[in-house]
């Protein structure tokens, strides 16, 4: 097929699969909120947190309890859930303190066990049925996109995801706070000698990362629904995103999330039989070309 033929067929393909492409972007932005926090924690603190998916799920459940169970506003549920995520990060920092320098295996075993405990507690409190959070009232409508109607809430999730990527990137790469974070990773002793409490800085990063996971659980609940097992599924996808994008890279987390969102959505629409394997296939292809990830440093 010539390039001219491909160009002629492209508008038709785009129109036919527009909804799948938009769904891929929405899912990708949800994965970004998970992956960017996980990447910051691992890239800046060298802490492997396998309880990240459980915090994502619990954040959604907390918001569900506030919004549906208590009848409070959507923003109130979001605020409580994000606060819960930050507190969970502080608590996790205390739990990890004794074994932080004992290697990734000990961290993985501890946080994986914690993930099982949190998941079981969620099942005890909220049951095993699918739960969902209604989207905000002003977003409970559809808007026209290139001649097709699409849920406004999912478009809002895309916008929030891209805005979050810009904010986190600017904070980490262009502010004094970000400079302290990066310096603490490179030379902890030197930063401590300057009078900066590195322990508190790292704890703040952990709280921010888990708060982002909880935030993702809230905005993802109207799309994915909440049930046992969602935490493990989202965690695996977030890890694939980090591997593809590059450890510790915010642009990498964004690009990786978009790639995985499109592979999952378009793969399910075009070749559903091989869609589950396409995710790992994309990871293998990237690692074969760039083992450090698309934006990772050697």
- Overall pLDDT: 85
Judged by helices, strands and strand pairing, the structural class is mainly alpha
Low-confidence stretches: 1-10
Principal-axis shape equals globular
Biggest sheet character: 2 strands, antiparallel
Helix content: over 70%
How would you describe what is shown here?
The structure is a single chain. With 298 residues, this protein is mainly alpha-helical. It has one domain (23-127, 163-289). Helix content is 76%, strand content 3%. Strands 1-2 form a two-stranded antiparallel ribbon. Helix 4 packs across helix 9 and helix 11 runs antiparallel to helix 12 (275-289).
Which descriptors would you attach to this protein?
298 residues, mainly alpha, two-stranded antiparallel ribbon, 76% helix, globular
Compose a concise summary of this entry.
The chain is mostly helical and 298 residues long.
Write the layout of secondary structure elements.
Elements: H1 3-16, H2 18-45, H3 52-69, H4 74-96, H5 104-126, E1 142-145, E2 148-151, H6 152-174, H7 176-186, H8 188-193, H9 198-224, H10 230-245, H11 250-270, H12 275-289
Antiparallel strand pairs: 1-2
